[in-house]
Amino acid sequence: MDNLKDKALFRPFAFIDGNWVAADSGEQIEVDNPATGETIARVPRMGEKETLRAIEAAHAAFPAWSARTALERADILNRWYELMMEHQEDLGRLMTLEQGKPKKEAEGEIAYAASFMRWYAEEARRVYGDTIPGAKGNQRIVVLKQPVGVVGAITPWNFPSSMITRKAAAALAAGCPIVIKPASQTPLSATALAVLAERAGVPRGVFNVLPGSAGEIAGAMTSSPMVRKITFTGSTGVGSTLMANAAENIQKISLELGGNAPFIVFEDADLDAAVEGALASKFRNAGQTCVCTNRFLVQSGVINAFCEKLAAAMNRELVVGDGMKEGVTVGPMIDENAVEKMSEHVQDAIDKGGELMLGGQPHSKGGRFYMPTLINGATSEMKVASEETFGPLAAVFSFDTEDEALTMANDTEYGLAAYFYSRDIGRVWRVAERLEYGMVGINEGLISNAAAPFGGVKASGLGREGSKYGLEEYLETKYLCMNIG
Ligand SMILES: NC(=O)C1=CN([C@@H]2O[C@H](COP(=O)(O)OP(=O)(O)OC[C@H]3O[C@@H](n4cnc5c(N)ncnc54)[C@H](OP(=O)(O)O)[C@@H]3O)[C@@H](O)[C@H]2O)C=CC1
Ligand SMILES: O=C(O)CCCC(=O)O
């Protein structure tokens, strides 16, 4: 952390009600650098009691925060945005150290994370109500949008900053305070955001960060009637448990869960553009992104050409190594379990007849590095067909007809992101409409931005984040029936 320009951004504590605190028990969690395995920090392991205190602080802060004008809240979010961009390099460095993604990609995530602050600063001022003609001559119907109340957020390690700001910026813009549990592997990006929140003028109690025990913190959030909204990004299993637990207090819930993204390449596609999109969609964050392509479905007439071009591009563009090193484009995987899952999917595909074209093994330097891998001849019996690999494996399946491609693409419990490449306008509409996914990239491999509604269908989740729709998740609708005599 010695290399940070602003050393105060390294804050290995929890942030509750404007105070930097340790766990009541004194227990800590070790945070390591996935590139080296070295321990880089110890943060408090907060539990149920501390979480209840944070919820109470947030609840106490709610009336004053929600009573501020939208413009006042927007000004604070804008200041926070500016501070994030001023400290982009330091925040990126912290992220690379705890998460592993290459420095340039980490700085890119900081800009992406900050963009939610700016977006929701603007949206805060556009929370409109409605008037509706009354059912009786002397009645008027007025619809108000009001903040839902205290929000409990649980976020993953793969996007340590943006998964927080995508939730927090919308919540704060709507007038809701938030209590956040960041992933245990990446708490430092979260606490650095809290340092900047304080500097931006976010009042105490409005933004709280508690690294710690997932079970205890989530339990406190779902069992407290003060928490009116739960928002989660992570695995489908945990999301489903949270949803069941949130039922106890009928809490509103948004879930952004796993995916199994298909990337369809039709014979009429621009193959070079498809390969460029494939690289971006598959290898961002070493394949550890819920919208990463999991299955390449390529029409039989172009499958060999596509694979050759993809292999050449992977050889040219993908450099594996420590994300702090200049020129590295694929960092380490987050932990040994992730490497194991990747190895298991690759071996399973090879055992079941897949043709290994590139990679297929951990990097010779060992540790958590895995070589970007390309396997042609993938089939529906392979694990990669039905499970999210969450790693740098490009598995290529063949299809003959549009109908077959759609059947294969939709043959999954998930429905987060899908991509396809085609230059036939009729096909573009037909395929876009029939894909059972919340987001579809058409001749485009990078679909995430603050203006767009991010989210999935089926086992990939509920609700949307980003865009004007993301603000709705933090608002309640109240109807006033006025008798005017
Ligand atoms: N949609 C997405 O973006 C993501 C999908 N995934 C998928 O999930 C797989 C497993 O990754 P993993 O990190 O284990 O994902 P998890 O769902 O376990 O972790 C995400 C967040 O949930 C927390 N959490 C863990 N257990 C519970 C619980 N019982 N109740 C409430 N919160 C909990 C974690 O805390 P803690 O860190 O303390 O365990 C973390 O903050 C990946 O391989 C990938 O397939 C993973 C991350 C993001
Ligand atoms: O993997 C995730 O859950 C976050 C996706 C990052 C993004 O593209 O917004």
Rg for CA atoms: 23 Å
Strand content: 15-25%
Describe the main β-sheet briefly: 7 strands, mixed
The overall average pLDDT, rounded, is: 98
User: How does the overall form come out from the CA principal axes?
Assistant: globular
| Percentage of residues in helical conformation | 25-40%
Q: What structural class results from the helix and strand content?
A: alpha/beta
Q: Which ions, cofactors or small ligands are bound in this entry?
A: NADPH dihydro-nicotinamide-adenine-dinucleotide phosphate, glutaric acid
Structure write-up:
The chain is of the alpha/beta class and 485 residues long. Helices cover 39% and strands 22% of the residues. It has helices at 48-67, 70-86, 88-99, 103-123, 162-174, 187-200, 214-223, 236-246, 271-283, 303-317, 336-351, 383-386, 402-410, 425-434, 467-472; strands at residues 14-16, 19-21, 28-32, 39-44, 130-133, 139-147, 150-154, 178-181, 207-209, 227-233, 252-256, 261-265, 293-299, 355-358, 373-376, 393-399, 414-415, 417-421, 439-442, 457-458, 461-462, 475-483. The longest helix is centred in the N-terminal third of the chain and has 21 residues, at 103-123. It starts with 13 loop residues before the first strand and ends with a strand. The chain binds NADPH dihydro-nicotinamide-adenine-dinucleotide phosphate and glutaric acid. Glutaric acid (GUA) is lined by residues 158-159, 162-163, 233, 256, 289-291, 448, 454. The site of glutaric acid has 11 residues, from α5.
